[in-house]
Design goal:
Blueprint: E1 14-15, E2 27-31, E3 36-41, E4 76-82, H1 83-125, H2 127-136, H3 141-151, H4 158-182, E5 193-205, E6 218-223, E7 229-234, E8 245-258, E9 261-271
Parallel strand pairs: 7-9
Antiparallel strand pairs: 1-4, 2-3, 3-4, 5-6, 5-8, 6-7, 8-9
């Protein structure tokens, strides 16, 4: 500890609680066996900093209202200590701080352990959906975000779990549909006129109403009972609306492949009336 003077054995150097040396002439109530005393002093005014006033207050008379222009604060008396006594106080304080820190760290570790145990139980209960989320996370930003939360030891809400299940169900539906699509085969021979039992899965408008004369045509993506894809481009009324089924007679125009799916393109469809 730094000292400004080297005190004699009869007059030890005194220090404030913060470790700053104090003037010996202002020390009183000395108890050398305990290493304590009292130190009286008059601090500078906390409002004006000892100046007694300020130009910023000129509209009220310049003088600091807190000290009345003296620049001094209220007289104070504080405890002071010998170097040895202060060292013991600092050591005791550090020990208390270390004890309090150890207790806080132990409590935090216990809290985290309890949270982790709850998280592990929750993960075990939701193991199936979590496994699905991990398997599909690469193709879904939403699922990837949820997986990162789980890995950060967060428990998802019921709403998040339900939303994840919805995304998973849609992903499975798309995968199943893709498997069915890849099983599609070409139907008939090019130029052959034959019957098709179709269900319209989707209609895409390809019309050009702004040209003259306007062109009206639609892309009908259909399937037959075996899942084979059938394509019709036109505006014929023989092909039903989206989601509807019908039996039509049409000519096999060509066989194509799109996204690895075999497609049979038909032309000039006409409705097949049920026999009486």
């Amino acid at each position: 500890m730094t000292q400004n003077t080297t005190p004699s054995a009869e007059k030890p150097q005194w220090f404030s609680r913060g470790g700053a040396p104090v003037a010996a002439e202002r020390v009183h109530s000395i108890d050398l066996p305990k290493g304590t005393a009292r130190y009286s002093f008059t601090p500078v005014c906390g409002r004006c900093g000892g100046r007694g006033g300020s130009e910023a207050w000129s509209h009220t008379g310049w003088t600091c209202y807190q000290c009345g222009g003296t620049g001094k604060g209220e007289p104070r008396t504080e405890p002071v200590y010998t170097e040895e006594r202060l060292a013991k106080l600092v050591a005791a304080q550090e020990k208390r701080r270390a004890t309090a820190k150890a207790k806080a760290e132990a409590a935090e570790a216990e809290r985290r352990a309890a949270e982790h145990a709850v998280w592990q139980t929750w993960c075990a209960e939701q193991s199936e959906v979590i496994a699905e989320m991990r398997a599909l996370a690469a193709g879904s930003e939403f699922l990837a975000d949820l997986v990162s939360r789980i890995d950060a030891v967060h428990i998802l809400t019921e709403r998040q779990i339900e939303a994840a299940r919805g995304v998973i169900e849609k992903a499975h539906a798309r995968a199943e549909a893709r498997v069915r699509e890849l099983r599609s085969e070409w139907i008939g021979e090019i130029g052959q006129r034959r019957e098709f039992s179709i269900t319209v899965k989707r209609i895409i408008d390809l019309s050009e109403p702004d040209v003259f004369p306007p062109i009206w045509k639609y892309l009908h993506i259909c399937e037959d009972d075996c899942g084979n894809r059938i394509i019709y481009i036109g505006a014929g009324s023989a092909v039903p609306g989206e989601g509807q089924s019908a039996t039509v007679k049409a000519t096999v125009k060509k066989h194509t492949v799109r996204d690895d799916v075999k497609q049979t393109v038909i032309a000039r469809p006409t409705p097949v009336r049920a026999k009486a």
